[in-house]
Amino acid sequence: MIFARSRRTSVLLGASGLAVAIAFALVAALVLLSDGLDAASIALAGGSGLGLGLAAWAGWQVRSWPPCRLGFFRDRLVVVQGRTEQHALWDRVDTATLAAPVDWSAGRWPEIEISDRLTVRMKRGKPLLLRPADFGLAPAGCRDLVLTLRDDKVSRGRLPEFDSALDLSDRPVVTGELITPRL
């Protein structure tokens, strides 16, 4: 139940389309130079155009993928945004809300506004802020999933375990807060 998608097939399809386009364009240029403008060179140029179209479509698919990753594990929630990685242990999650930050300085109850940002408040530590749309998720559904996993140990038991040595071996870890040493 980890939200992760691979761009590998779209990149492979785009590279294949680009290779086909280049090959067809080269052959079309050779036929055009040797025989002049005839049906074969026009057909090969059309094939090159189809290859470029396929490469452009795959490029658009890669560009439209969410830039961030969100992982749900048995013991924690992991958010990776660019080079920043944040962890939220389930036993430390206090609340998860879509409400915009409230200004209490007016001395009266403020109006609460719903936003598209999910704020996961921790019992000890800084809150975790994220936009579920960056991960391709609906904000309300993401909030409900976080609260369900926080409260239901049986559902969390079906999730994979977090193995930082295996999962994070291909990139350096950049975190936003200090690590508390265990004594």
Number of domains: 2
Query: What is the percentage of strand-forming residues?
Result: 15-25%
Distance between the termini: 33 Å
CATH topology of the largest domain: PH-domain like
**Low-confidence spans:** 165-169, 171-179
Q: Structural class, judged by helices and strands?
A: alpha+beta
| Shape verdict | elongated
| Mean of pLDDT | 78
Main sheet: strand order: 1-2-3
Task: Give a written overview of the molecule.
The chain is α+β, with helices and mostly antiparallel strands. It has two domains: 56 residues; 100 residues, Roll (PH-domain like). The protein is 41% helix and 20% strand. The chain contains five helices and six strands; from the N terminus they run H-H-E-E-E-E-E-E-H-H-H. It has a three-stranded antiparallel sheet, with no helix packed on it. The protein has a three-stranded antiparallel sheet with strand order 4-5-6, covered by helices on one side. Strand 2 and strand 3 form a beta hairpin. Helix 1 runs antiparallel to helix 2. The chain is elongated, with a radius of gyration of 25 Å. It starts with 7 loop residues before the first helix and ends in a 16-residue tail after the last helix.
Helix and strand arrangement:
Elements (H helix, E strand, L loop, with lengths): L7 H28 L3 H25 L4 E5 L3 E6 L2 E6 L3 E7 L14 E9 L5 E3 L8 H13 L1 H5 L6 H4 L16
Antiparallel strand pairs: 1-2, 2-3, 4-5, 5-6
Helix pairs in contact: 1-2
Brief write-up:
With 183 residues, the chain is α+β, with helices and mostly antiparallel strands.
